[in-house]
Amino acid sequence: MSTRTRFPTLYRVVTDLEAFSSLLLPDRTLRPYQLAPARAILDSIASNRGDQFAVVFSRQAGKDEMLAQLLSLLLLRQSRQGGTAVIAAPTLQPQATISRDRLRDRLLANPLTGPMVRTAGNTVRLGRTQATFVSAAPGANARGQTADLLLVANEAQDIAPDTWDAVFDPMAASGNATTVYMGTVWSGTTLLARQMRHLRELEAGDGRQRVWLVPWSVVAEEIPAYGDRVRARMEQLGESHPFIRTEYELQELDGDGGLFPAHRIAQLRGEHPRLDRARPGQRYALLIDVGGEEESGGGQLSFINDTRRDSTALTVVEVDLAARDGGLPVYRVVDRRMWTGVRHTTLHDTLVDLARNAWKANWVVVDATGVGAGLSSFLKNTLDSNRGASPAIRVEPFIFTAASKSRLGWDFLGLIDSGRFKEYTQGDGGRAADLVSARTGSDITADYYAQLRATTYEVLNGPGNVLRWSVPARDGHDDLVISAALTAVLDGLNLRPRIARGVT
Fold this sequence. Notes:
CATH topology of the largest domain: Nucleotidyltransferase, domain 5
Strand order of the largest sheet: 3-4-5-2-6-7-1-8
Shape: elongated
Distance between the termini: 72 Å
């Protein structure tokens, strides 16, 4: 092939991202929804307009691949002139280094750029151009960097706005660099959400697109298997689950008015009656939140003498293993109780009697945090072993930490939103005496729904999307809600009965 024939193809490769991707990285060719925002970003850089963009893709839709290939072409174009791109991530390890390694690998796999690639620390160089990957964690030493080509906030929802404004935004000033905010929208308080609001105002003024949202449905048009996967997750968790709404539908969580807004409370209401003992042939679990603990903080949460946490709450669920074709169990609340000021030795005997005789329980999940550790240990020693004619009951301790309570909250919402957690009807079935809460004298069922409505939440900035949720002290207690949420711990166990098979 002559030089004249080859030249147009080479020219297209270095000037057009689609040609660059399809010809030089055929196994990782960018799709149309990736190409559109990347082209706008490259055009802004080439024109030195200093535009800002927000790029939000559905989970695992190729946002980081788009960034790696965009950077690859940028470094190739500028390899003679020089320049710097700065890419900030919430952490250096692993987030920033993963992005660095992805860029390096794409450059090495490209026959045009492979021979020129140099890596030094967190900087990838191609000729006179470089991309530097830094941490945007508070206190990280990122000052002094200059981004004269491109400045990127990757996973911008996890970068503190104050840190970005003070340390990173000035990096783009001297060269009027293009700035890109990438990530997932969780709440309106994040850096990403703030910038999206600002950019939409600019869009309304001049009609030029600056916010690029790619929800799962757009990705599914290009990748049918991706759509099948998301629909399966929606079937399992429910369309209104926070992960579905934020990671796939790209919606903010703010505005629900609490963790359990009216639509979610309506979703958990069932049509089955409240019971006072087991029905033949059914399986039951006891979920116990032990009074005297405060579920907040970082590590294991120690006991504090907090009068808000002075009651032990019990939720009893009937476990239906055959309710769903997909094999996922459904949990129906059939009873709840509460004890205040009862010694744990006495409470132990009461719970053992309920587990063995009233409910013939298969499982017990119990709060083992702080003083709950003692009651949990006693219950495990008594129930989780064969004692005479009594069959063993599996006892699963649960220790509250900030991380474990966050997971519990997310998973509990998933059970509710997918229709797998249902409450008994509010009629008392003639058991009015049992409905009275010892603490308040109120209807315990009404008390539970009041706690649901009073539960507030926030999603913390930073890796992990930590969910902090509770009933504020001014509004009362959350014992009954915590007890019900322990159903999510039960859901993580292998509940299928073991079938003994003889040798033939």
